[in-house]
Fold this sequence. Notes:
The radius of gyration is 22 Å and the shape is elongated. A hairpin with a 5-residue loop joins strand 1 and strand 2 (240-241). The protein has 13 helices and three strands; from the N terminus they run αααααααααααααβββ. Helix 4 packs antiparallel against helix 5, helix 5 packs antiparallel against helix 6 (92-104) and helix 10 (160-173) runs antiparallel to helix 11. By secondary structure, it is mainly alpha-helical.
Amino acid sequence: xxxxxxxxxxxxxxxxxxxxxxxxxxxxxxxxxxxxxxxxxxxxxxxxxxxxxxxxxxxxxxxxxxxxxxxxxxxxxxxxxxxxxxxxxxxxxxxxxxxxxxxxxxxxxxxxxxxxxxxxxxxxxxxxxxxxxxxxxxxxxxxxxxxxxxxxxxxxxxxxxxxxxxxxxxxxxxxxxxxxxxxxxxxxxxxxxxxxxxxxxxxxxxxxxxxxxxxxxxxxxxxxxxxxxxxxxxxxxxxxxxxxxxxxxxxxxxxxxxxxxxxxxx
Length: 266
């Protein structure tokens, strides 16, 4: 039994490489832990690089859901995403894809609810939800609710991306002065190159002449530094890059890549 499960685990890796998600789902289901003690011992004998079959199942469903969405079948995509959350209720990717489906259908409140689920699943991914949240609240005409939610999130997990989002909203609602004061306070606690570039941009808008040229040069330098650094890193193997991958290009682990705090990815 141990060798059979190890063989299935390697077969799963082949199906992932071939992007044969339906066959991968069948094999992953066979690898799900059974109730007997013998099967629990067998599941522990899987290769070290293996992840929980339920977690991988959820991502396979998400892969198929993306194919269905781009293929013009939102109903199939929705069902696949519900299956993903049934396999792994902590699947951030499923919540984010479901929110995009709701947004595309004009169901903005439902999209917001799906995005807010991410705060419970893993607050480290909150910055990834901000752009779509802002679009939803713009459609609903309820920017105040967005501000309140972002401040709650900031208290829970003060990342550079959330600081930048709150500052942008403050600049629109309360003016650049309030946004600058807020950024100064936050940067003392949570330094980031992106936040510094944003602060310089706010100061740039309020200056003229030689000072404006100096601020413009500083902002350009800050943006160059941000662009030269990776924004995301895999928590399993350390792979770093500029984009969020759901499957790490280095170790092939699913859902192990997150934004680097202070990297300025915002």
